[in-house]
Each structure stands twice: as structure tokens, then as C-alpha cells.
Amino acid sequence: MDATTSTSEELGAVLQVKDSQLPRLMELADDHGLADICFVIGKPNAHDTIDISAKGNALYSAERTILQSLWAETSYRMQSLRDNSECAREEFELIQDRKNPGLHSQLTYKTDDDVAAPFIKLGKRPRVAVLREQGVNGQNEMAAAFHRAGFDSVDVHMSDLISGRVSLDNFNAIVACGGFSYGDVLGAGGGWANSILFNARARQQFETFFARPTTLGLGVCNGCQMMANLQELIPGSSHWPRFVRNRSEQFEGRTTLVSVGESPSILMQGMQGSRFPIAVAHGEGFAEFSDDKALQRALQSGTIALQYIDNYGKVTGLYPSNPNGSPAGIAGLCNDDGRFTLMMPHPERVARAVTNSWRDPAWGEDGPTMRMFRNARVWLG
To answer: pTM for the full model?
Structure first.
């Protein structure tokens, strides 16, 4: 190619800083020999338009919604053919909502209020079995969250229980972690549940653990699916649904908003009425009930612990605010006495404020979901 027609695609970046920080940024650029290639190119406005000008002369102006719709339409058309067309339409139409307030947090508690501190000072650390199976990958974050709440987190693989190397008799709590158990080819957590139901030693251990009134448990993502399939072993869980393929027909990895309902869930105590963002990552999170009567029984049971909401704080079935299409926005449930809670979102991934893709400046060190793990520690005393 002739040198006069060649182009250069050098690395570049767009940074957004406060006006008060701009002089310092330019000083840093000058210190590193970059001042001659750093330019102020724009700033946000409050009227939701894209305005382009040069030397004080207005060159172009258009509403953000119009330009974003033009940009997104090709992807929308492809998504309509590849995925669930209704979900594609619902997501595309959200662009037109100019009043959409975006992600937010509204809490009934302070994130850094360590309700477990008095119990941690006693010097006792209850043991929680951090359960995993082939393909599970969320055990480290889960163990860290429980450890911060005052637990002794113990890595327990299902092979440890099946072989008899480890017994659940020695644990106060269990948590079934998320990931891709059995490669998500056996109905996600279904294969994991079957490894318990059809193995005499494992079945006996779990059945005894669930029946012991001084134990509690949490199931997340694949662990949610696994525990939902163990209804015959878990007292007071007959109203639980099973979790099947997302309405979008795709794996959903995103941040969504949830609200905490009035339920007996031990993990959600003191959080009722709160709204906050949470991470989701699943392909099979649709809460499927056998019929409408079963759904009504679940809703009337008072055990709906967590629901998906839109950016206005309303429970929703629309995509992508509800990433899997679950009826009544169901994101998590508990059994009748609240000792066992299952949820599709990942509270462990956002237990620290800094691990949230969006966070409220008022939070401090901990994210909203850290309270769940501390509640577990409080209940065990």
C-alpha cells in the first residue's frame, strides 16, 4: 500500500473525569509525553441529546434514543432470528424510555453494619460445607463471603461425601455453589441432584442434614437447581418450582435489580423492602411450576424471598430486567421455616462493593448481599 494512502490504527482511549480532575489529568499526560495527543472532546448533558459542534458552531444534534436505536437495530434483527423474538423486542423497546432511571439501590439497612460481629467475638466459627461438583466454579467467592461473615468455610466435593471421606454430620450449614455442573447438559443442576438421590450414602447424609432443626443451607445458580430437585428430602419445600431454560433461549450473564420480599428466609432477615443490583449468570433459570395452581400456592406461601424488578422498582417479567422470564419475577425462594433458601442470582459475586459493576457511593466496603451471609452467622449464634 502506498504510504500516502495508508492508515494507522493506534491504541486510543476515551476517559471521563470530573471537571475538577481535568487539570490533574492533563498534568499527568504532560509528565508522560502525551499532552499533544490528549484532547477534551465532550461532556455529558442533561437533555439526552448528542450535540456536535466545532469552534462554537453547531454541526449536528439528535436525540440519544434515535441514534441508539439506529445503532442497535442490526443486533436486534439478528437477535430476533437467533433468540426469543419477544425478548429481543422488549430489550430493543427499552431504548425509547427516556425517563429510565437506571440501576439504583434502596436499602433498609447499612451495608457495613456487621450484625455478626458480636458472635464472631465469641471465638466460635461454625462450619459451612462449600459444596461443589464437576463443573462448579463459584466455590472460592462463596467461601470468602462466608469466611468474612465468621464461618469456617470447608471445601467439600461431592466425591468426598459419596466416598464417606466427609460427613455432613460435622457441619452447621451447607451451600451449593454455581457454575456449570456436569457441563449443564443434564438439566443443569439436575445431574447434581441425581448424584444425591440415587446414591444411598449421599441421600442419607443430606436427608439427615435437612431434617436436623439446627442447620441451614443456601443454593445458588446450579446449586439452586440442585436443591430445587431435592424437594423430597427438604421439609417444607413442596411449593418450589424446577428451573429450566431461560425464556430468552440464551445464557444470561448481566447485572439485574432485585427486591427482597417478606419471607421467613433466615438469610434475608432485616433486608425486607430493599432493592439493589445483583449478578446473574445462568442459562436455565426460568422458575417452572406444574400449573397455575402451583404458582399460586407458591405466591401464597409467603416464601418468595427475592424478585426481579425493573429500574422503576416494579416486579417485572420483561426482558432483560427479568433475565429468565420467571413468573412473578421469582428470583429466590425459601422453605416454610426459612432454613433453606435457593436463588438464581449470585450474591457471593457482589458481596464486596468493589466487585459490583455499578455501586452506590454510600455503600462502603461491603455490598448489599453481604448481609445475607452475616444473617446466617447470627442465626447459628
So the answer is: 0.90
